[in-house]
Amino acid sequence: MTAPTPPKTVISFEDWQQRLNSLSFGKSELNQLIMDYLIIEGYKDAAEKFSEECGLQPDVDLNFIEERMKIRFAVQTGNIEEAIERVNDLNPQILDTNPQLYFHLQQQRLIELIREGKVEEALLFAQEEMAPRGEEVPELLDELEKTMTLLAFDPALNFPSPVSELLDYGQRQKIASELNAAILSAESYQSEPKLPSIIKLLTWAQTQLDARASYPHLTNILTGEIDHSSSPSDEAAS
Amino acid sequence: MGSHPPSSSPLLDSLPAYLRQTPYARLLLRTPEAKRAPLLLPTEWSKKESTDTIALTVNNLQANYTGQGIRDSDAVSIRSNRPIPTQCGVYYYEVTIVNKGYDGFIGIGFSHGSVSTARLPGWEANSWGYHGDDGNCFSGSGSGRPYGPTFTSDDTIGCCINLFNHKVFFTKNGVRLYTAFHGVKGTLYPTVGMRTRDEKVLANFGARPFKFDIEQYFLDEKQRLWASIKSIPPPLDITNDLVLSYFIHHGYRHTARAFAQNVLGAPSHQPAPATTPAPLTRILVDLNEQDAEIKVRQRIAQLVLVGNIDGAIYLTQKHYPNVLANNEKVYFQLRCQKFIELIKRAGGPAGVDMLEDEGELDLDSESNGTNGLNGQSHPDGMDLADPRTPAQVLKEALRCGRRLQLDYGHDTRRQIHQTLVGVLSLLAYADPAHSPVATYLNESRRGQLAHTLNEEILVSQNKPRVPPLEVAIAQSQTVLDELLAQGSAPANLIQIERDLLA
């Protein structure tokens, strides 16, 4: 029942170029987009300089960034206790209202104990701090069990893959991002920068249009290079 | 810029509220009237399809059944005057049952243009309907399946088609029912059918507010689409590279350096990642090599921004001798801006009384070198303290204006001519800040000029006119525009300016 596919439209480089050139975007909006990115990602020095050089006033206290980044750094370097302490100093509501986040932090603390080979301490911590909470939420208990299997392996040897992920730097990164987002939303700031979406949107939109038209692609995002040949050759035959 | 749709126009006002601010509305506005037909929404029931068993009233919005109403063969349906343009992404209309008639055998839904109007929607292939007497939904069959509540007089039924996932759901009195049909495709018309006596229905194609909050549904669908776009893994995380090149492009020198250090060194931020993405390192090398160059561009931009045009011209001439020679328009703009700055400083020709004691104006004198190209300006001076009296400044303004007139007075290029006349007419007002040409005094002109000059300098250095980040945005926008023009439904749910740049 599908309609016959119409022949693809071919758009020339010149035509396309003209369309691109006819567009321009507000500089202050672009600056704001970038400022949000700097603030959310925690690039404090850059945010400060940017505010000076482009004259854009950030709508949050940039000093907040520093504390947020210390917390992030603490998680990324495995100092979970320090991170929890700092978050509670900043705003005790954050962990109180996010039981799952708190559990993930505790889980990370357990992982760090196991990583350091402190087996007894890890067992005690799991039994006293984590199991009671896990019982309340079954899916958290699954995560706890998965973590506990780490104890079954000799850290000197390689861990099997599904479990070893937990010891990856990426796991710390994941928890750090989760915590970072929670702090930002407590500051009622957007928790996710919009800037990276632009590249994803570009990928999505180009793929969508590929099905309908032959047109110049942005082949190199880093240099802004647009493909000269919109490859009309294969369509020209039809 | 200017791609924001105007807030009001007869064409926009005719659209249902949920579509007024969308790319579809923008497309409609920029399409010439002669080509607009395929984009227009249904607005009424089709007069052409009305038969002797159906009568249209209330501006063709109400359909009254006038047939025998005994057998199924007495059924009749009517379609809207136009099909649904896929560009609207999500389409919705409502029908109020004015009178359920004898048995309320009323069907509401969608159908292709080719389907017989002697049948209720849903009985035939390529038609889909929700029926009031039993609450069943029908699609290509005389027997329906249980779907929702029955409906009767005074109930309002809404029909929604999501044109990119091809699902249809109905609403009853503003409450959403679950999905009725999947895979609803083709050229679709809102359709209503009746088959017992005295049945009457009144349609709302969006000219009046809907009972159901379609706006919220539209926003929810937008969010869902964005969520799926965001879940696309990027080929490589190059966000930081785009950000850094943006800073370099615009001459935000200290920001560029601080950012590169934040990302790479990151003493306060993150433990240095094991591997630094290669492109960023490359850009950092560029940053070091280009530092002096960025510094000059930044300085020039700053001079324009504080209104020291002579200084900006001087530095540009010194470091990029070709730029002004090759870009006469930019040079002209700079000279106009210089004149504007002088007028601003003099506070308008009101100071002219003070001039009289200073003797006759020597308008032809070149002695002061106000023609910036040979000017003895102070490149580093920010003009914070101008020792001259307003009268002296005004005198220079007159001299500067005179020279502009000499050089461009006979220029036939429309843009140049218009700007010249507008700028020089500042002299005609005692209080230029409250004159019809006050816009020339606007601070934003400096920003625009600094921006243009920076672009021209970059182009003269064989660098791109806009930073890669803006190219990526422009490319996305152009692709989205083309998608929409080609009838892509989801393209109406993505708006770069509102979704990302607002």
UniProtKB/TrEMBL annotation, chain A:
Pfam families the UniProt entry points to: CTLH, LisH
Top-level division of the source organism's lineage: Eukaryota
Transmembrane portions of the chain: none
Annotated ranges, domain CTLH: 64-121
PANTHER family: RAN BINDING PROTEIN 9-RELATED
Name of this chain's protein: Lish and RanBPM domain-containing protein
TrEMBL record, chain B:
Species in which this protein is naturally found: Dimargaris cristalligena
SUPFAM superfamilies per record: Concanavalin A-like lectins/glucanases
Keyword flag Glycoprotein: no
Superkingdom of the organism of origin: Eukaryota
MF-aspect GO terms: carbohydrate binding
InterPro entries: B30.2/SPRY, B30.2/SPRY_sf, ConA-like_dom_sf, CRA_dom, CTLH/CRA, CTLH_C, LisH, SPRY_dom
Sorted UniProt keywords: Lectin
PANTHER family xrefs: RAN BINDING PROTEIN 9-RELATED
Domain CTLH: start-end pairs: 293-350
PROSITE patterns (alphabetical): B302_SPRY, CTLH
Domain (B30.2/SPRY): residue spans on this chain: 23-210
Protein name according to UniProt: Concanavalin A-like lectin/glucanase domain-containing protein
